[in-house]
Design a protein that fits this description.
By secondary structure, the protein is an alpha+beta fold. The chain has helices at 13-24, 45-48, and strands spanning 29-33, 56-60, 63-67, 71-76, 82-86. A three-stranded antiparallel β-sheet has the order 3-4-5, with no helix packed on it. Strands 1-2 form a two-stranded antiparallel sheet. A hairpin with a 5-residue loop joins strand 4 (71-76) and strand 5 (82-86).
Length: 114
């Protein structure tokens, strides 16, 4: 399926991702350039190297969930973000290691940790 989305040139990759999510009706997407390089959502469109009229691919991802006794983790395989919630003592707060959680393939929950 092909869609055309537009964002302001001063925008970010996140702006482009949101436009693609709305257009395709799918919340879990990763964006890739025509040569297969995944775009970093933290980058500006200017830094990403995209030019007006470029074609990109929106790759649909399947979200996954893991649980401990009192906490949960949500991620997409190969994704750029993991969301955790619940009791911080059971794995519900990953903020101190969030910058290390890139390209995660799997998360396993134990009784009190991930």
């Amino acid at each position: 399926r092909s869609e055309t989305v537009s964002v302001l040139p001063c925008g970010t990759v996140v702006d482009l991702k949101i436009a693609a999510q709305q257009s395709f009706g799918h919340r879990f997407l990763r964006l890739a350039t025509g040569v297969g390089r995944f775009l970093d959502p933290r980058e500006s469109l200017q830094l990403s190297g995209l030019q007006d009229g470029d074609s990109i691919a929106a790759v649909a991802q399947q979200p996954k969930i893991a649980a401990t006794r009192d906490a949960f983790a949500l991620w997409c395989v190969g994704g750029d973000r993991i969301v955790t919630w619940g009791d911080p003592d059971e794995g519900g707060d990953s903020s101190s290691v969030q910058d290390q959680l890139r390209n995660v393939q799997q998360i396993c929950g134990t009784g009190g940790a991930f």
